[in-house]
Design goal:
With 149 residues, the protein is an alpha+beta fold. Helices cover 18% and strands 32% of the residues.
Length: 149
Amino acid sequence: MTTTFETLSVGDSIDGPKFSVSRESIRLFCDASLDYNPLHLDDNYMKGDFGKTNFGGIIMHGMNNFGLITRMLTDWAYPAGAIHRRLETRWVKPVKPGDTIQPAGIIKAKQVTKNSRFVLIDVLVKNQNGEKVAVGEAMVEFPVAAAAA
């Protein structure tokens, strides 16, 4: 059954695909983004402290979380004719090779305007231990169909 604006309720959930993080997936993201920061590639560099933080090894790009959330939203919205309009996230825990992460969303509000209908969604990504690694908010638009002539 395809999601429609009318059938959505506050509290409804969306689940995204699980993603197994590996050194190879991190390297591929480096290649795709042209971001070769040693945080993502150099074990020796990551042995050091960064202020009060020690990551204990390389970490995945935070933008990879952003991409997984975007995939979840578009896979959910596009079949319904909806459009992913906005996404804001923040990273709360590093993701390392060997982790398995999964995005999810919870409908937190519906809004109707003169020209369209919008859904606000609390989004998050959790690791295999149920720990939040990213949180944020998204907006999806369900456009009003044009009246037939």
